[in-house]
Amino acid sequence: MLPPAARLAARRLLGLASASAVQSSARRLFPSPISSPATASTAAAAATGYFSRSFSSALNYHIDSPENSPDMPWKFTEANMEKVKEILSHYPSNYKQSGIIPMLDLAQQQHGGWVPVAAMNAIAEIVEVAPIRVYEVATFYSMFNRTKVGKYHLLVCGTTPCMIRGSRDIEEALLKHLGVKRNEVTSDGLFSVGEMECMGCCVNAPMIAVADYTKGSDAYTYNYYEDLTPKRVVELVEMLRRGETPPRGTQNPERKNCGPAGGNTTLLGEPIPPPCRDLDAC
Amino acid sequence: MAFLARALRHSKPYLSSRSPAVGASCRWISPTASAGSPEAGAAVAPADPELPPPREPVGGARVELPSNPEDALEVFVDGHAVRIPKGFTVLQACEVAGVDIPRFCYHSRLSIAGNCRMCLVEVEKSPKPVASCAMPALPGMKIKTDTPIAKKAREGVMEFLLMNHPLDCPICDQGGECDLQDQSMAFGSDRGRFTDMKRSVVDKNLGPLVKTVMTRCIQCTRCVRFASEVAGVQDLGMLGRGSGEEIGTYVEKLMTSELSGNVIDICPVGALTSKPFAFKARNWELKGTETIDVTDAVGSNIRVDSRGPEVMRIVPRLNEDINEEWISDKTRFCYDGLKRQRLNDPMIRGPDGRFKAVTWRDAIAVVAEVLHQVKPEEITGVAGKLSDAESMMALKDFVNKMGSEKVLCEGNGPNPPADIRSNYLMNTSIAGLEKADVFLLVGTQPRVEAAMVNARIQKTVRATKAKVGYIGPPADFNYDHEHLGTGPQTLVEIAEGRHPFCSILQSAKNPVIIAGAGLFEREDQGAVFSTIETLAKKFNVTRPDWNGLNVLLLHAAQAAALDLGLVANPTESVKSAKFLYLMGADDINLDNLPEDAFVVYQGHHGDKAVYRANVILPSSAFSEKEGTYENTEGCTQWTIPAVPTVGDARDDWKIIRALSEVAGAPLPYDSVAAVRNRISTVAPNLVHVDEREPCVISAEVKPPVKQQVSSVPFKTVVENFYMTDAITRASKIMAQCSATLLKN
Amino acid sequence: MAWRASLSRSVKEIRFLFCQSSPASAPAREFVKKNYADIKTSNPSLPFLVRECSGVEPQLWARYDMGVERCVSLGGLTEAQIDKKLEDLAKAG
Inter-chain contact B681–C61, Cβ cutoff 8 Å? Predict the structure, then answer.
């Protein structure tokens, strides 16, 4: 006879295990060697716990590695330094720290998709704050990658509208094709897959965004590829691998932007002007 | 624990015999329609004789209403009207009204964060409960702290906090003094509804002093705000977001600040605890003794927690004038030095050079015998850094009675300026430093010499953007400062008006000059101080209403030594000594001591000087004796014995008294009161305890100094912050700190 | 004041104790302010301790050899009288 709290807890765990049909991709990401129900459910529970906690690819503390250590010398390039000055000109001189976010973004683009600790220290010096303040900003936002990502960082939207349109299958297809786990970089350094929140393309779900770090910070692009199917997304990846630029936006040839397949059924002409306003008289 | 007491007090009506049907008298229960409205309460208050007297502010605090009546306003807390100064928050208004509102992230000495939400109270006409720590109190506001909404809010917040909090109470050091435990007992509900997985967080390495178990952290950010505001080092931050937030330094960085131990007191849960004290004791086993710290000249007020004969830990006591609520790391963690290298038996060095333990009778007899064999002018007495005023008085009296004038204290230099008190004290007083707007630090690095004075300067610089100019060797400061120069030449330039810093000094309303006691050791000490005094006169630093000329002393015994007149020249006294009486003096230079000098070492640790001693007389340390210590601002304080003394050790002054008896020159006092009586004839301010006697005779009465300043630059006086005296040198924790935390 | 020059021969330490603000101590305060420099110049190594403390009766202490001390109360004395007392103490040693 279990006490009520324990019964509730057990029911919750079983509920998680039964919901694992939806989270099949989750279990495959963290495969448990023994597929007994108990460990499977704990794996699912652990998996849920993991997913519900952190979206960022990295830990909230820094681990030194040969390519990421505070004594690595890092500077903005000359061109980027100009951009930095332009960024700083937007903010009052005693509030330079407002420029931390755009500068981190610039540093990320310059460094090929991720921000090393040395870059954060450099930004701290420019902005005249203590480095910990920059670390706080960098760890807060999940789009600042603090560990290495691929030259093409593929971000799959996993929010509800995309999810019910099959974004889990897209992600699964990508991961299977590239042979990596989420947030892991392929061995040739070209691709990595991460999850993103809703990017506003719910009408064209499911979609991915591709952050293109191959051409440095001057030619950095962040394009959406929408209306995907598992087959199409693999094609896209291969196109990227060959160095081509796939057409951005909806991948469904019958749709135009967010219009329906087969053309718009509304908004076919110019919108009716507002009734009372005589624009010429103003 | 105050919350628990108050909660119990509030529950009293249920236990009393008063009938609950009498609505108006049971005011603590959730308000009914009639008795609930504050108007009814306020109207009833004066008339009803059964009502309790008006509530006292929390903790017996005194509330100073501003003199201008425009600046005070009236609010209603639970029906009671209170007058508060303008600018007070709702939480502070409730404190004035005697209601202690539970909180985790709010701390009266730190900036307001408002992120724990435990302080939610109901304010009339507000749609939601209000975070009282952040909401300014507006005139006529009706604040209700014991309504169902407020109670439900507290229970809810507590439930959320406990959701991810590990079940560590049995193994957590904070148990028994944990804010979370106390507030959940007083304000939380009895059951939780959380059945999912709790999150866990990796522990961070902050050094050998602060133990971190970050899973217990409730993200109140008190430590982050303390580090950046009070300690002045921006090391800690809140990384990540949401329930995955972690407090840390991001990169592996040890907390090297000298105030880092205070985060242990500040953390409301067991996330940051004392590493040396980990798993040693529970707080209810400890007996707290309110005493004074002697590791530096600040005289921070501490409470020594002991269990039996052992000092388990040292925690700060509140003293607004000296150390507020903080103590430095050295003060906090030196206690384990009290257990090592202790001298516990009188010893005499035999002919083979080895020490042999003897009885007190024999030891004193031997010393007295030698005393009679030397000439009076060959007797020298040296008091140590940690000596209390009673023992220094006894030493001086005894040495004088034996016919010698050579009694001195370590660290006061060749020509101690003991005549005029304002020449060696912090005349502005430590609390007075807050009013300054320009600081000129001459030859002193307050961060390592007197960490609490540095904390006060940091507080002023942070609050008012005060300017700091520093003359001395390049040093680490945790506030913005201008490094003006390295030696007395810069001082001369400023005194003559040739330096750019002069304009800053000129425009200052309350300038402060702090000269370090390291300057006492210089050959040109007189000239340097004369230049400083000229500077002070020129820039209006000393005025009838403001005395900004200060000397920062280094050791606990210095001020009292100078007050009592221990002014011999150390080099000459040591050179000519045939009988040297070292009373805890380990840092005196004994190079010139004659080979055949007879050295008696009276102290509590076998530190440096015992190697040269012929006789060792064990005495008690500061935690074991009643002693009078005067801090650098002239405030006299008493230490209280917390633990029994070690072995056969005795109080310093008693040993000298006994020696004087056997030597045939008995001192005229037999009790501590009698010694203090004698002290009152020499320096009466040393018997006015906990009081600071300001000086009216200024340095202007001194004759002009003909000496010139030399060009020797100022030196760093404290090389190793963690090891400055016998107790800290014997401490293992301090050794770990020196090895890992010093910035070199 | 010839005796001032030979002060340090007989006296080993001089102590002035007085209150910072009481009128009874005012002559003592003035005496110290006016005469300290002079006495100190002629006796540079003599400890001339000035100890202010609130509520204390003005006193002058002189310490001689072998720790013998002599005290004179300065209550009600003028500056000239204080000077005379100091001289007496100097000669008594």
Answer: yes
